[in-house]
Amino acid sequence: MIEVSFTQRYPKIKIEVSLSLQRGFNFILGPSGCGKTTVIKTVSGLLKPDEGLVKCCDEVFLDTRKDIFLPPQRRRIGVVFQEHGLLPHLKVRENLSFAVGKVRQVRFRPEELLERFGLKGLENRYPDELSGGQKQRVAVVMALAFNPRALLMDEPFSSLDVDTKLEIIEFLKELELNIPVLVVSHDPVEALLLADRVFIMREGRIIRQGGKEVLGELLDKLYGGK
Amino acid sequence: MVEALFVSLKLSFATTFITLIIVFPLALALAYGSFKGKLILEALLTLPLLLPPTVLGFYLILAFSPNSPVGGLLEELFGTTPLFNFWGLLLGSVIYSLPFGAFPIRDALRSVDRRYIYTSYLFGYSKLETLFRVIIPNAKEGIITAAALVFAHTMGEFGVVLMVGGNIPGETRTLSVYVYDEVQALNYSQAYRASLTLLAVSVLSLSLILLLRRRVRR
């Protein structure tokens, strides 16, 4: 479990978030600019917020009061960015080797993940020789091969067509990940398909949280239900 | 002429090598650092672009003359000052080439997508490992461009070279100074041959560098 509580002030918005990420799929839903990505950056260590506390199990990642800040290199958190993050100068195989280069123990072998995600045969291609969906799948495989303590995904499906999106969601469900997975999205349908817990975020704050029932209201608004 | 060509080539290769070593950390600091004096550093590096080469050469003569504190110290330590010898030529060329090396590298480093750097950090790689495994491979085109600019610029350099190096055959007389001498002596056929050689060497070196840049684009 990851406990996150932080404040980050930007010129136009103050982000004040407190949430705990349990094992399974946690979704943060909210419009662009509401502070979703800041949560990912804070948990992964890419951002040191103004104030806050981030704990992963018993390990303190961040405690601004005690001036503790663990850099991303020491957190072992997998992150999948919106527009992948594959290293363009490396082939798929080399990207995977890069991802596991610092890992002592792997839960999933990279070859096994490539096969499961339908990427077999693409190992010798460079990222710019892959489709958008393939790139995103490779990014997920890299993050998982890294044996992360948690997986954070920043709008991972936003640039994908529906079929590819559903395919990746199915793969993720099948894997039975035993870690907290945080997916940041603005699409309630993605949450409906995958989420165990949902956090609704508006203007820098979590305004509602709970199980999928939280989505009911949102979907009603979107699709005109009652 | 062969002697002058050899001096030009020696000077260009040495200037390129030394300039890249000096400017790389500076470009890195300019691209990613936030520190006091960043603007001043940028202005200082731009200065050789704005100053006429003869003015820059004149200041170097003043700075390294045996009567100046720096020149005096160098003479005491090494028994000579970097004036009117190959080392002076090299020093002047390196100073004059700093902006041609620093700014393309700074821009290339800046253009490396942050996501790649983040990816590297998240997978556990230190800043130094990220520099060598992610940033440099993705900025290599800019680094090669900088090398090409410094090399080509030094091959054709005239003002600083003449001021700081003088015109000693086999030691400081470069091909561009040789062309100047031959024209002054109204020896146009020699000047023509030397100019053509300079042009051919420049085109050849640039073609090689552009070819290399195309090959490393991946």
Summarize the amount of helix of chain A as a percent range.
Answer: 25-40%
The residue ranges of chain A in which pLDDT falls below 50 over 5 or more consecutive positions are none
Radius of gyration of chain A: 17 Å
Radius of gyration of chain B: 20 Å
Report mean pLDDT of chain A, rounded to a whole number: 87
Q: Looking at the structure, what is the overall shape of chain A?
A: globular
Unreliable residue stretches of chain B: none
Distance N to C terminus of chain A: 35 Å
Summing up helix and strand content along with how strands pair, one would put the structural category of chain A as alpha/beta
Q: Structural class of chain B, please?
A: mainly alpha
The major pleated sheet of chain B works out as: none
CATH class of chain B: Mainly Alpha
Instruction: Give the percentage of residues in beta strands of chain B.
Output: under 5%
CATH fold name of chain B: MetI-like fold
Oligomer: heterodimer
Report the end-to-end length of chain B measured between terminal Cα atoms. Answer: 40 Å
> How do the strands of the widest beta sheet of chain A line up side by side?
7-8-9-3-10-11
Q: Any idea what the CATH architecture of chain B is?
A: Orthogonal Bundle
